[in-house]
Amino acid sequence: MEMSRRSLFRHSGVAVGVATLGGFELFSQQKKPDPFAGLKSMTAGVKPLDPADYQARIEKARKLMADQKIDLLYLNGGTSLEYFGAIRWGLSERMFAMMIPARGDIAYVCPKFEEARAREQIKFGTDVRTWEEDQSPYALVKQVLQDCKIPSGVIGVEPTVREFVIDGMQKACTTAKFVNGENISQGCRMIKSKKELEHMTLACNITKKAYEAGFQTLHEGMSQGELRNNIAQAHTRLGATGSGGPSFGPSSGNPHGSILDRTLKAGDVVLVDGGCAVEGLHSDVTRTVVFGKPSDRFRKIWDIVKKAQEAALAAVRPGVPCEAVDAAARKVVVDAGYGPDYKYFAHRVGHGIGLDGHEYPYLVHGNKLPLQPGMTFSDEPGIYLANEFGVRIEDTFYVGEDGLGHIFGETVTAISSY
Known about the structure:
By secondary structure, the chain is α+β, with helices and mostly antiparallel strands. The protein has three domains: about 1-35, no CATH class; about 50-190, Creatinase/prolidase N-terminal domain (Creatine Amidinohydrolase, Chain A, domain 1, 3-Layer(aba) Sandwich); about 195-405, Creatine Amidinohydrolase (Alpha-Beta Complex), CATH 3.90.230. The chain is about 30% helix and about 25% strand. The chain has eleven helices and 19 strands. The strands form six sheets. Strands 6-5-4-3-7-8 form a six-stranded mixed β-sheet, sandwiched between helices. Strand 5, helix 4 and strand 6 (about 125-130) form a beta-alpha-beta unit. It starts with a helix and ends in an 11-residue tail after the last strand.
């Protein structure tokens, strides 16, 4: 039986080279090749979003506002501000806001001392209203509504806006009606463009390649932190900032691992969950491998999880409710004896993904939102045996124009051991 290449590179940073001379096998130790040596940036030449891409998002938001009789969308710092305005702005107690009216010019409310920094980033609209530290930003919001002729209008508030900001606006704008604006922001964000899908494909391919390089460094006594750093290094070499959170052995029996930093032993299950971003759009990938020889019990559970992942993807069709994808995966797991409900498969099968690693919509029981082409999700069933080991296989997919679910990049087809 021919020895696999991976088995040659298994332990202690050395490999066993095999040569034949006169019918006898000669064994010699040689240094393990650097798994990072061949990694080169995959992000050179990536096409960023251009102003037309952002303008299309703004116009879609305005169409949704008109359909739902919302007069203005209020955004603060975070990924929705980045999505619509190409502005990266952190949250603080000081209001920085982008306000998109259904009709009329976009306006901004900004701390006066931040005005120069804000104008460096603002690309859409020129109406920037500033407030000094002893002034109220809420009075400026009221002015914007008056100038847009909607003082009694319906204001859609992006879901991440904090309660104290909403309270301040309600007290200042007593005739306006403030409502949850998630149908506008999420209605735009959950459908990805062709360019966005390309960025996500690249991000997923980078993470999968980084994992493979990281797994090649597994060795007896390795810490989880060392593997995490190796995977981060591989991402950097490949042109993206990213990493993966490893769980060794019994820690993998918890879906999100343990605070214990275990060291690697022969036979340990290694579960890694992580990703990176390309032009702000995320990958999310989980792989479960074995350091050494997989046990029969591990093989059985890995196969069940893989079939559950495939069942979830096969359930994807436009018009199918999100909850049906979870149900398809959960049925495989429960029918195999790992139920009921969330007993061993302890979480939903997937979440939306884009500028945020987790974003709406979610593939979970009770979510009857119909799938649409351009939606993107994780597909990540798992089985977790407390104090023993866990298996999760996760890939990110999109709903294609052909009506099928498509994995970004290559998916795993067989158990890997190192």
